[in-house]
Design goal:
The chain is of the alpha/beta class. 36% of the residues lie in helices and 16% in strands. It has 2 domains: 24-260, 3-Layer(aba) Sandwich (Aspartate Aminotransferase, domain 2); 263-364, Aspartate Aminotransferase, domain 1 (Alpha-Beta Complex). It has helices at 20-29, 48-65, 79-91, 105-114, 214-219, 230-235, 245-260, 263-283, 310-322, 347-364; strands at residues 9-10, 71-76, 97-102, 119-125, 149-152, 154-155, 160-161, 173-176, 193-197, 208-213, 289-291, 302-307, 325-326, 337-340. The strands form 4 sheets. The chain has a 7-stranded mixed beta sheet with strand order 2-10-9-8-5-3-4, with helices on both faces. Strands 11-12-14 form a 3-stranded antiparallel beta sheet. A hairpin with a 4-residue loop joins strand 6 (154-155) and strand 7 (160-161). Helix 8 runs parallel beside helix 10. It starts with 8 loop residues before the first strand and ends with a helix. Bound molecules: pyridoxal-5'-phosphate (PLP). Pyridoxal-5'-phosphate (PLP) is lined by residues 14, 79-81, 106, 152, 156, 176, 178-179, 197, 200. Pfam families: Aminotran_5. Its main location: cytoplasm. InterPro entries: Aminotrans_V_dom, Aminotrans_V_PyrdxlP_BS, Pser_aminoTfrase, PyrdxlP-dep_Trfase, PyrdxlP-dep_Trfase_major, PyrdxlP-dep_Trfase_small.
Length: 365
């Protein structure tokens, strides 16, 4: 089955493209899920139908990443931004210190919240380099007594991405993976905690995925509000209160779709091919287009670039919009251009963008 509706070339940074197959399935099931005479949104979160959706989504995520048994998968709300708060609230105890690697605006925001709870340190920062790179592993400094080390695995705004992760030994490594979760295989056992808002690679906004090592749950602060404790959600299988049921249903469908793409290995190959199309145009443009990120730190999810001539850049964005490309403006804080090539962005959209970029250059240089 295919949709007759025209789909935009959607390069939005988030919320962003969802797989057409998933949208069509949700559309089919919207009015009558599994012959219940109602949509999944309209039924009790304690019902058998919903329970299956919920537990299957957890099981599929565990299987896709081969998440070890000593980890819990949680479905929370409040976005990645609430995780900026929950992480230090749960794990940064009085007198302790947490170390943050600064690689962009989201890491800065995460650090800002931690300052409310305890001592912090910059483990490394690429701010002076306009966040064009990810620090090398041996630049990262932390103490064995730190409560945790925090990183942002993919920097949505600057278009950089960690290619390998630091070994932090006994110190838990915490990662904001909002914009590259599910885009490639990752060894989960390297991390104490991973969090991600859903609206880039996982589904619609409204659900936040947390993958947390169980021993951290035991060490977490006890005297904090119930809803902000990881243990509350871990102890109740993320059903302490009403979860975002439709978002979790959509996440489950996205996970099935990822399985059908050959799992995380298959998805990674697709993502590499898609990003290469666009980076190649930038690199072969003789400086007409300029990438923001250093080559070794380039993101497979968010391709940030400028048109060297500022006036032409404005025109590029106008003409791109007219040609049906959506979401190519850089983040309002940095300007320029950004193509977000998340999992669900089809290779055809990337091909169309590369053709447009080549044509634009021919016309204007
Ligand atoms: C989008 C994004 C966020 C913010 O997510 P919300 O769900 O809107 O709070 C945080 N970190 C990164 C890396 C992001 O890409």
């Amino acid at each position: 089955m295919n949709s007759t509706i025209t789909r935009a070339f959607n390069f939005n940074a988030g919320p962003s493209a969802l797989p057409l197959e998933v949208l069509e399935k949700a559309q089919q099931e919207l009015i009558n899920y599994n012959n219940a005479g109602m949509s999944i949104m309209e039924m009790s979160h304690r019902s058998k139908d919903y329970d299956e959706v919920h537990n299957e989504a957890i099981a599929r995520l565990k299987a896709l990443y081969a998440i070890p048994d000593n980890y819990e998968v949680l479905f929370l709300q409040g976005g990645a931004s609430l995780q900026f708060t929950m992480v230090p609230m749960n794990f940064l105890k009085e007198g302790q210190r947490a170390s943050y690697v600064l690689t962009g605006s989201w890491s800065e925001k995460a650090l800002k919240e931690a300052l409310l709870f305890g001592k912090t340190a910059e483990a490394a920062s690429s701010k002076e380099n306009k966040y064009r790179n990810i620090p090398t592993l041996n630049e990262i400094q932390f103490d064995q007594t730190d409560a945790y080390v925090h990183i942002t695995s993919n920097n949505t705004i600057y278009g950089t991405q960690w290619k390998e992760f630091p070994h932090t030994g006994e110190v838990p490594l915490v990662a904001d993976m909002s914009s590259d979760i599910l885009s490639k295989p990752v060894d989960i056992s390297k991390f104490g905690l991973i969090y991600a808002g859903a609206q880039k690679n996982l589904g619609p906004s409204g659900v936040t995925v947390v993958i947390i090592r169980k021993d951290l749950l035991e060490k977490a602060n006890k005297n904090i509000p119930t809803m902000l404790k990881y243990t509350t959600h871990a102890d109740s299988n993320s059903l302490y209160n009403t979860p975002p049921t439709f978002g979790i249903y959509m996440l489950g469908e996205v996970l099935k779709w990822v399985e059908a793409q050959g799992g995380l290995e298959g998805i990674e190959k697709n993502n590499e091919a898609k990003a290469k199309l666009i980076y190649d145009v930038i690199d072969q443009s003789n400086g007409f287009y300029k990438g923001h990120a250093e080559l070794s730190s380039r993101s497979l999810m968010n391709i940030t670039f400028r048109v060297a001539d500022e006036e032409l850049e404005k025109q590029f964005l106008v003409e791109a919009k007219e040609a049906g490309f959506v979401g190519l403006n850089g983040h309002r804080s940095v300007g320029g251009c950004r193509a977000s090539t998340y999992n669900a962005v089809p290779v055809e959209a990337c091909q169309a963008l590369t053709n447009f970029m080549i044509e634009f250059q021919k016309k204007h240089q």
